[in-house]
Amino acid sequence: MKVSVIGVGTLGSCIAYELAVKGIVDELVLVDVALDVVVGHRYDILQAVAIRGKPRIKVGDYSDIDGSDVVIVSAGKPRTKDTVSRMQLAEDNARIIAGVARKLLESRIESTFITLTNPVDVMNYLLYRMLGLPRYRFMGCGCQLDSARFRLILSEEFSLPLDEIEGYVIGEHGEHQIPLYSRVKIGGKPFEVPVECRARIESRLLSFALEVIRRKGATVYGPAHHTVELVESILFDQKRLFCCSSIIDLDGLEEVSIGVPVIVGRGGVEEVLRWDLAKEEYDAFVEAARTLYGYEHRILETITEEH
Question: For the whole model, what pTM was predicted?
């Protein structure tokens, strides 16, 4: 099993560390322009797993990614406390992701890709369009983290055991996220979230990432853990349910990357689930899709014109 990480900063290095200590890969390739830093990360991770002796970890270039089962893309400018919207990063990070894609094309790499660079939906779409591989090989890790945040908020709001809560968020990993109140369950039983509490829940859900960033500088453990769970589901064909950004067609919109419930296995996104939603949830989802479609196609057009 071989996994490559492109962009080995705070988040990318945490993902590499968790993959290594779990021992679920045989080979780990780390690619980053900051060579000295990534060499430091390699040695640090190796010292954590040296007694076990697995995996092999290499600081490499794009040619070393060839043969990877999964490629994780976290290169780009990170969100800061001053970045109110992830879309503020779109143009700068699109140029970085376009550069990554061109390097990957030189090596004709065919892997399953997990995108983490913000704005996740837009960058996942851009990577898909530039690499030209089947859509099921691309997923953005965003709404799974939003779903975890939703569950945590519900736990704190209603003093409920966190491990008994089932709750999901779809849509954009950003302003147009949609918490699915119609599918909330506690201990396997439907739970009606009071209407008067929903605005407060949504406000906190939307600002939760910035709350962490303002306190400690970055969101790391949450996105890293959910990314590694995606990797596990791919490598071991677990066919698990995730909410993640996938390339879909919807209501006349062809090829939009947006957070949806999917089954992830060895083949990447193996199935997009069609859940019955409340009307207001579906309407909000369609609106989010239309908004993202506009962003994604404008960014692609800008990158194409620049080159």
Answer: 0.94
Tokens of 33: 């322009």
Q: Identify the bridge partners of residue 59 per DSSP, sorted by sequence position.
A: 30
Task: With both helix axes pointing from N to C terminus, report the angle between 120-131 and 90-107 in degrees, rounded to the nearest 10.
Answer: 30
Neighbours of 258 (CB within 10 A): 30
Using alpha carbons, list the distances in angstroms from residue 225 to 11, 61, 166, 186, 221. 10, 25, 18, 23, 6
The domain limits of the chain are 2-140, 143-306
pLDDT tens digits for range 242-266: 999 999 999 889 999 999 999 999 9
- Segment among 9-18, 49-58, 69-78 with least mean pLDDT: 49-58
Read off the pLDDT band of 82 (50, 70, 90).
Answer: low
Residue 41 annotated among the catalytic residues of the structure: no
Question: 164 φ, ψ to 5°?
Answer: -105, 0
Q: In one letter, which amino acid is 237?
A: D
- HSE-CB at 77 with a 13 A cutoff on CA atoms is 17
Q: Active site residue: 41, 173, 176, 226, which one?
A: 173
The DSSP bridge pattern shows strands 169-171 and 177-179 to be antiparallel
Is CATH 3.40.50.150 the classification given to domain 2-140?
A: no
Contact 264, 105 (CB under 8 A): no
Q: Domain 143-306, what fold?
A: L-2-Hydroxyisocaproate Dehydrogenase; Chain A, domain 2 (3.90.110)
> 187 with 165: CB under 8 angstroms?
no
